[in-house]
Design goal:
- The protein is an all-alpha fold.
- It has a domain of about 110 residues: Tetratricopeptide repeat domain (Serine Threonine Protein Phosphatase 5, Tetratricopeptide repeat).
- The protein has 20 helices and no strands.
- Helix 4 packs antiparallel against helix 5 and helix 16 runs antiparallel to helix 17.
- The protein starts with 12 loop residues before the first helix and ends in a 6-residue tail after the last helix.
- The N terminus is likely disordered.
C-alpha cells in the first residue's frame, strides 16, 4: 500500500476546499498500489511507523547508486515536502521528471496541494493579525512555486504590519520582477519608496503604472508628489491636471497648492489657491496663505479681500487683524487703520 501521509499535516479549511482531487489522480494512486516496487514497499514500511530517518536512509542509499532513479527522486521529494523543505523537494521532483513522466501527475498534485495549504494558513494567520506566522506561511508557499506572484503582495503586507519595510519592499520588488505589470505590488512599492523619500524611484514605478493603468488616480497622485519633491514643477502640474480630471478632489487640489507655496512656487500656489476659493470660499488655510502671499507681493487690496473674508469666520484672529491693519495703512485707508490699531491696543512709536 502507498501511504499518502501528508494529509496528516494541519491544513486550512480554505486550502482543503480550494483543491479537488481529479479522478485521474485517484486512478494513478491505484496503479501505484497495484505495481508497488521493492523500494516503495520498504519506503512505506518506514513511513507506516513514522520513521522518517529510516525512510531518508533508504532513499539516499538508492539515489547514491542511481541518482536518476525517477521513483527514488519522487519519494525523496515527497518526504522533504512533508518536512516543509520545499526548495529541496522541488530539486528531487525535477530530477524525477527529467528521468520519467510517470510521477508527473502526483508531483503536480502534491505541489499544488501543499501550496494551497501554506497560502491558506497564511491568510488565516493574517486575518488574526498573526503576521509573523503569516510571513512564514507565505514564504513556504513561495518556495513551492517560486514563479507565482500570488503570495508576494500578501507577504509584503504582512512585513509592513511588522514595520519591516525593507523586507516588504523586497517582496514587492520580487513580485514586479516576475510580473512587471502587477498593480498591487507596483503601487505598494511606490508608496513605500515615497515614505522613504526615494522620489526618483517613485517616479519610475508610478510612471510605469500610469502607462499601464491610465484611468487610475493613485499613480498620478504619487507622481504629482514626487515631481513636486524633485523640483519638476511643470510635470507636477501636468499630473495634477490629469489627476483632477479623474478624481476631482478638493483635498488634492488644496494640498498641492500648499505644497507649491512651501516650495517657494508662489505664482503656481496662488493660481491653485484661487481655484480652492472658488470651491470653498471660507477655507481658513487657503485664506491665510493667500493673505501672506499678497502681503509679501504688496497686493494690499487683495490682502484686505482675503483678510476680511477670513475674519468673518474668525473675528478674533489677532494675526490676521494685524496684517489687515498694515494693508489699510499702506493703501491710505487711515480710518480703518486707526480703528484696528485701537482695537489691537497698539500705538505708533
Amino acid at each position: 500500500m502507498f501511504y499518502d501521509y501528508q494529509w496528516g499535516q494541519g491544513s486550512s479549511r480554505r486550502a482543503r476546499k480550494a483543491l479537488v482531487l481529479p479522478g485521474c489522480i485517484l486512478l494513478f494512486f491505484c496503479v501505484l498500489a497495484a505495481c508497488e516496487s521493492t523500494l516503495m514497499r520498504e519506503f512505506n514500511h518506514h513511513m507506516s511507523g513514522n520513521d522518517l530517518r529510516s525512510a531518508h536512509s533508504v532513499l539516499d542509499r538508492e539515489l547514491a547508486g542511481n541518482p536518476n532513479n525517477a521513483e527514488a527522486n519522487y519519494l525523496k521529494g515527497n518526504l522533504l515536502s512533508r518536512e516543509k523543505q520545499y526548495t529541496e523537494a522541488n530539486r528531487f521532483f525535477d530530477r524525477s521528471l527529467s528521468s520519467s513522466s510517470v510521477y508527473r501527475e502526483h508531483i503536480d498534485y502534491l505541489r499544488e496541494r501543499n501550496y494551497r495549504i501554506e497560502l491558506g494558513e497564511g491568510l488565516d494567520a493574517q486575518e488574526l493579525n498573526r503576521n509573523e506566522r503569516a510571513v512564514q506561511q507565505y514564504r513556504l508557499a513561495s518556495q513551492i512555486f517560486p514563479d507565482r506572484t500570488e503570495p508576494l503582495p500578501l507577504l509584503g503586507r504582512a512585513y509592513e504590519e511588522l514595520d519591516r519595510t525593507g523586507e516588504a519592499a523586497d517582496a514587492y520588488g520580487e513580485c514586479l520582477r516576475l510580473e512587471p505589470r502587477h498593480y498591487e505590488c507596483g503601487i505598494r512599492l511606490a508608496e513605500l519608496e515615497a515614505g522613504r523619500n526615494n522620489y526618483n524611484r517613485v517616479i519610475e514605478l508610478a510612471g510605469n503604472l500610469r502607462a499601464e493603468y491610465p484611468d487610475d488616480w493613485r499613480p498620478l497622485q504619487l507622481l504629482t508628489e514626487a515631481y513636486m519633491e524633485t523640483g519638476r514643477y511643470e510635470e507636477a502640474e501636468g499630473t495634477l491636471s490629469a489627476l483632477l480630471s479623474i478624481q476631482n478632489s478638493y483635498r488634492t487640489l488644496k494640498n498641492t497648492a500648499l505644497a507649491f507655496y512651501n516650495h517657494g512656487e508662489i505664482r503656481r500656489a496662488e493660481y491653485y489657491l484661487r481655484q480652492c476659493l472658488s470651491q470653498q470660499p471660507n477655507d481658513r488655510d487657503v485664506l491665510q496663505t493667500l493673505t501672506d502671499i499678497y502681503l509679501n507681493s504688496r497686493n494690499y487690496e487683495l490682502v484686505i479681500e482675503a483678510a476680511e473674508r477670513l475674519l468673518r469666520s474668525e473675528p478674533e484672529n489677532q494675526t490676521v487683524r494685524a496684517k489687515l491693519m498694515i494693508a489699510y495703512e499702506l493703501i491710505g485707508d487711515l480710518d480703518n487703520y486707526k480703528k484696528l490699531r485701537d482695537e489691537l491696543e497698539l500705538t505708533r512709536p
